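Give me the fold.
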Amino acid sequence: MKIRRKELRQHVNKIITLPTLPHVIGKLAGVLENPMVSAEEVNTVISSDQVLTAKVLRLVNSAFYGFPGQISSVTHAIVILGFTTIRSVALSASVFDVFSLNGGSIQFDRRKFWQHAVGTAVISKAIAHYKGYPEEEDAFVAGLLHDIGKIIIDQCLHDLFMKIIKEVYDNDILFIEAEEKFMDCNHQHLGKWLSENWKLPVRLREAIAHHHNPERAREGYQLACFVHLADILCRAKKIGCARDTQIPKISHKAWHWLGLQEPELLELFELIDLEIDKAQIFFDIINKKSKTYCQSKAS
């Protein structure tokens, strides 16, 4: 008998994360909704968490953001990079701490999982840039979080996760195909529910919820297309591990909408290789130890 959505959603709602994510990131999202917000106000929110501030400054001073060693403060970073990028950096700096990088099992290497997530994020952003999408950082965040539902299953429903993994290995199928044999939903739904709890914008929630079937997305259709193709390219380039060996089929509608011809693809691949090299800072963060924060809320 399959596990019902209602039961799975209850597990998602019980997840407690580091105070940084629900408090600082939530507060940051709130202040950024105000079109009149100042750089100093955003700085005040981020600077209330010293660990987050250090991580943000480390990331924005990397080659990935184009200003290595040139940004001296969060306010300086905001002025140079803008509010959207700072939100993306702060979320990226926090999310690795939310779920354990050292948990799981031999069958599920957390570091390789996050390497795939970062690879997908970088490629998604590169595609968005290539297509002239105005909010490239949204493409990065959507790519980073696209598979986070898998972590939820592993960390909070580990026995179920191991059944799914066994099904993947025994039948050489995609993870999403295996999980739908045991649940009446999949990791896309769990990722969407968590992103709702984190109060992420609707377009990001939809991209996470439909990265395997972007044609179902509405407000987040473009982002879903970017992440869909990025996930496939990341698998093809063998960056990290999505926990199965199959490569999903490309959505014909998404492929047609993206409109990439062979010369453009070759140019895009060169851009992707360059961006992956610059994203080493994220892989360095992944390789640092972290703690587990999946517990039940006190009743």
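Residues 123 and 230 are 5 Å apart (CA to CA).
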